[in-house]
Amino acid sequence: MTGRFRAGGTVAVVGFAHSEVRRHFDRPLGSVTVDIARAAIADAGLTPADIDGFVAAALFPTAGAHAVQDGVSTVTAGWLAQRIGSEPRYVAGFQGIGQMPGSVAMAVNAIAAGAVDYVVLHRALHNPSGGYHDDPVTAISGAQQWTAPQGYSGPLSMIGLPYNEYLQRYRADPAAMANVVVEARRNGAELPWSYWYQRPITTAEYLAAPMISDPVRRLDCDIPVDGVAAFVLTSAERARDLPHHPVYVAGYASSATNPPRLQSHWPLDDIMDGGAATARRLWEATGLSPADVDLPQLYDGFSPFVYFWLESLGLCPVGEAHRFVQDGGIDSTTGLPVLSGGGALGTGRMHGIPQLLECYLQLSGRAGSRQREHATVGLACQSSPHYGGAVLYTSEPL
């Protein structure tokens, strides 16, 4: 690790704001984002004039052919920076996979380098009218000509194939996934901003849900929504003078490049090998280990991701996640609270925001009636272990 930057608590999250999560807002996404960013700035005890950095990930995550319009279907860092009333010195957008970990890394690096003092980091998600993955294309060329005409395209097929591999390889019962989805919805039902607020589900309801891409059921998928969240980051030194207990960025890791495959082809071995490498970089970057993490927030845009992250991170043995979740392993009251913040399945398709938010709320002592005792190390993941990333947060500097 000689010569490599280690965050180690040099940068902290000091404030946040989160919109209500809805299927569709009654006003433009950009308008909501401006309000949420200003609320996050005020929550941090700052004014817009204090903010000199903006970071965002503006990926519009639909496999369909919907128009991408800044301020309407997405909100870039540049669009927001023009409308807050500050004079930024640093404006950047993360373009890779793993939207939130990548954005956090950019903000941390800019602050640590002295390029900026206070950064607003936001993510704005839009649910377009019509089918989320509607695609009017009638002719296919390139690599997809070998898959799309046969019905193999888009994220459902992408996750259905390795999930099926997992079930067969480890002789797992697909009904066990009910434990993941029911747990996410139970926790999400407690959050006033969640789309699923006060709407938990039962195992029977999960099993009755229609199959979408066998073995993926409808309730294995997060629901497309409109929603916005913003966070303020600054140096640990400046954070001491602000009103809330800082939450420190201990380190982060992003996935590396993967073996070339047909588009949307994610073999299980690629996921697990790539995930193990991501986890190894994370532990090396922080000096921490799985045993140190008491608040792991695993990504669940599709429920099988929870299995893959549990095993990649070393939170349970490889091939055992399906048993781990059945034995109360992820019960937020008695087990490992991997979905205590509701995740994507329990709040809506907010692309890594629920994981970051839960780490911030719990480690800063701002979770209210949900506050967990002795939460000191949080982990927020996003996307698949081989195609995303993870950030470690601590309640005190390392």
From TrEMBL:
Gene3D superfamilies: 3.40.47.10. CDD domains: SCP-x_thiolase. One of its GO terms (molecular function) is acyltransferase activity, transferring groups other than amino-acyl groups. Pfam families: Thiolase_C_1 (PF22691). InterPro entries: Thiolase (IPR002155), Thiolase-like (IPR016039), Thiolase_C_2 (IPR055140). Residues 277-381 form the Thiolase C-terminal domain. It comes from the Bacteria. This is Thiolase C-terminal domain-containing protein. It comes from Nocardia macrotermitis. The lineage of its organism: Bacteria, Bacillati, Actinomycetota, Actinomycetes, Mycobacteriales.
